Amino acid sequence: MPTYRQLVAQKAELDGKIEAARLQELQTVILQIRQIMEEYGLTAEDIGLAPRSGRYVGKKAPLVAKYRDPKSGATWSGRGRAPAWIAGKNRNRFLIA
């Protein structure tokens, strides 16, 4: 019966062979995928690997201000918690025309 150290050495050797076989097959698989994509005119977007060009990727544009404080010039979009200068007051007075 093999010892623990012998088995660990065999495992390390097998791990190396497994990785070498994977790398060798990987090149073949990549070539096959590229050939199929070229044959059918597919892109990374078509198979869900890249974001669609029509979608906006990244940060959203800041919201347009709807209200302005005439004293300080501070603005508010109307979303989220109301600032102290408008809270509890008639918002129509602060609308930006």
Describe the structure.
Helices cover 38% and strands 4% of the residues. By secondary structure, the protein is mainly alpha-helical. It folds into two domains: 1-55; 62-97, no CATH class. It has a two-stranded antiparallel sheet with strand order 1-2. It is found in: Cytoplasm, Nucleoid.
For the structure shown, list the relevant keywords.
97 residues; mainly alpha; 1 helix; cytoplasm; H-NS_C_dom
Short summary:
With 97 residues, this protein is mainly alpha-helical. It has 1 helix and 2 strands; from the N terminus they run H-E-E.
Q: Total number of β-strand segments?
A: 2
The sequence of SSEs as H and E is HEE
Give the overall pLDDT as a whole number.
89
Radius of gyration: 31 Å
Number of domains: 2
What structural category arises from helix and sheet content? mainly alpha
Q: If strands are numbered along the chain, what order do they take across the biggest sheet?
A: 1-2
Poorly predicted ranges? none
- How many alpha or pi helices? 1
- Helix share of residues? 25-40%
Keywords: Cytoplasm, DNA-binding
Subcellular location: Cytoplasm, Nucleoid
Organism: Ralstonia soli
Main location: cytoplasm
Topology (SSEs and partners):
Layout: H1 4-40, E1 67-68, E2 75-76
Keywords: Cytoplasm, DNA-binding
Pfam families: Histone_HNS
Subcellular location: Cytoplasm, Nucleoid
